[in-house]
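Homework help board

Subject: predicted structure for assignment chain

Our instructor gave us this sequence and asked us to write out the predicted structure in token form, then describe one feature. I got the tokens but I'm not sure how to describe them. Can anyone check?
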Amino acid sequence: MGKLAQTVAYGARTLLVRGDFDDCLRLVRESSEKLGVYLANSLNPFRIEGQKTIMFELLQQLAWESPDWVALPAGNLGNTSAFGKALREAQALGLITRIPRLLSVQASGAAPFAHDFADNFAKRTSVRAETIATAIRIGDPASWDRAVSAIRFTNGVVTSVSDEQIMQAKQVIDASGVGCEPASAASVAGVRELVARGIIAPHERVIAMLTGHILKDPEKLLNTNDAHGHVAANAPIEIDATLSAVERVLQTATKA
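My token output:
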């Protein structure tokens, strides 16, 4: 558990898997194939279509005047893929005449995509992820191929920032009155990094996406006891990272 614990939503309850995000993704894929569980991860094309609307709404709010950059946290790369798809379609529909550059920002302890970008995407790598930014603590992004296409189409950049840089950016964001989770702050940290490196010019207009609010923290689910020490009714169900463990929980729920 602890730093390696990840959660999977299951009805009104939560499964707490002894493993990381990549273990969880493997489990839900196996569960979808063998147990009839519906997969709502960004591997699902309908999920990408939903995420795509974020970019359309952003462009609409800017009166279809594209910014120079759109920065976003990068973990499983679903948003990077969806944003690239949205920009292709917006251009094809004549809604925009200029494509903003995507800036996908990873935590340095979970940065396989940034590593691949530095190598011109010659090959796909994976890592054992470790970062304070739990939502992007992903070592083997599922949407790698589509994200590569999005970065190439937008002449985008992939970079990584340290946990310290992420938390410094989070302090700035929180101080402005907008509470965000650490992973969201990676987008702002990435913008600051590219400005310091001279890649983003001072006059350029940049949108930094915040993808999760301040309460999005799986570790908080571990503290489920009430004031009298009683375990809450919706406490997480802790399981090993095995398909048989998921199946046992599903069978128990069916009998309840």
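Reply (TA_rk): Your tokens look well-formed. For the description, you could write something like this. The chain has two domains: 2-39+223-255, 45-208. That's the kind of observation they're looking for.
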